């Protein structure tokens, strides 16, 4: 069932979304060479406990996973892109880290993902991350009342084509609200003018993710971590978005003070 939320419900989701954005920004600042992935996981656990929130991942047990996830943030490194199972691994200079987090506060969920480069960035990695971010903003721009889900998918696919990245259609965006995954699947490519009509009160998670060299994926033996089938680098960007009378409202924006990628891009462009 697809539930259209009231303005009051959306504001409750916005409270959750702000918290998710803040914690992702903190994790990005903490991600440095020598830092263990489990240190990031435990930081997120502490913040969730302090806030009185609930992780949407802890008991997450879909058909493709091996039992409940039992962690609170997905941490995917380099060729891993989705559902990266936190484990003891010390980040290295140049690693591309994708972080995905969903929590619920007072019964309302929000979900967001953010990719960063640890330390010294390679230009091709920054370009890959940029593509997911540009695709996300393009999708948000067309998430207008009266448009359709296909417009969102087509906007993402157009950016992928512009950057020259293939698109996997198995995993994409979804409805969200009282639970992390509600009805509606939003593939990362599609045809405009098709699909569910966007109406005020609809809340969705839009999440473009690309691999540099393939649209095929492979699962790790842990049953969770999804990688590019050819070992190429990957990146993932996601926001929870509400459709309102006046247009899309992003509920999971990170604090504007987070300038990590912008600084890295400027440094890469100047050769410093």
Give a verbal description of the structure:
The structure is a single chain. By secondary structure, the protein is an alpha+beta fold. The chain has a single domain, classed as Creatine Amidinohydrolase (Alpha-Beta Complex). 31% of the residues lie in helices and 23% in strands. The protein has helices at 7-30, 37-51, 123-141, 149-163, 260-270; strands at residues 54-55, 74-77, 80-82, 96-105, 108-117, 173-175, 182-186, 203-206, 209-211, 217-219, 226-228, 234-236, 239-244, 247-250. Strands 7-6-8-13-14 form a 5-stranded antiparallel beta sheet. A hairpin with a 2-residue loop joins strand 13 and strand 14 (247-250).
Strand order of the largest sheet: 7-6-8-13-14
Helix content: 25-40%
Give the class from helix and strand content and strand pairing.
alpha+beta
Assign the CATH topology.
Answer: Creatine Amidinohydrolase
Tally of helical runs: 5
Tally of separate domains: 1
What Rg do the Cα atoms give? 17 Å
Order of helices and strands: HHEEEEEHHEEEEEEEEEH
What would you give as the CATH superfamily? Creatinase/methionine aminopeptidase superfamily
Poorly predicted runs are: none
Beta fraction of the residues? Answer: 15-25%
What's the CATH first level?
Alpha Beta
Instruction: Round the mean pLDDT to the nearest integer and report it.
Output: 94
CATH architecture: Alpha-Beta Complex
Largest sheet descriptor: 5 strands, antiparallel
Q: What descriptive keywords fit this protein?
A:
Pept_M24_MAP, 272 residues, single chain, five-stranded antiparallel β-sheet, Creatine Amidinohydrolase, four-stranded antiparallel β-sheet, 14 strands, alpha+beta, 5 helices
């Amino acid at each position: 069932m697809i539930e259209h939320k009231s303005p009051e419900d959306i504001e409750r989701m916005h409270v959750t979304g702000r918290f998710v954005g803040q914690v992702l920004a903190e994790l990005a600042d903490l991600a440095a060479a020598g830092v263990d992935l489990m240190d990031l996981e435990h930081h997120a656990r502490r913040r969730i406990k302090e806030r009185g929130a609930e992780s949407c991942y802890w008991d997450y047990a879909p058909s493709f996973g091996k039992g409940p996830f039992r962690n609170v943030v997905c941490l995917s490194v380099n060729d891993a892109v989705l559902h990266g199972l936190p484990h003891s691994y010390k980040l290295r200079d140049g690693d591309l880290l994708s972080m995905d987090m969903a929590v619920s506060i007072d019964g309302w969920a929000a979900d967001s993902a953010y990719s960063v480069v640890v330390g010294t960035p390679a230009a091709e990695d920054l370009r890959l991350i940029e593509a997911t971010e540009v695709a996300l903003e393009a999708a948000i721009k067309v998430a207008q009342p009266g448009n359709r889900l296909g417009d969102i998918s087509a906007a993402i696919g157009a950016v992928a084509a512009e950057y020259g990245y293939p698109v996997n259609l198995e995993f994409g965006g979804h409805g969200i609200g009282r639970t992390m995954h509600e009805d509606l699947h939003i593939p990362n490519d599609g045809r405009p003018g098709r699909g569910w009509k966007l109406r005020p009160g609809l809340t969705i998670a839009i999440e473009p993710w690309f691999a540099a060299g393939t649209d095929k994926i492979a699962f790790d033996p842990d049953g969770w971590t999804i990688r590019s089938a050819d070992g190429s680098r990957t990146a993932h960007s996601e926001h929870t978005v509400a459709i309102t009378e006046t247009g899309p409202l992003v509920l999971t924006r990170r604090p504007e003070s987070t300038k990590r990628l912008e600084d890295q891009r400027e440094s890469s462009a100047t050769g410093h």
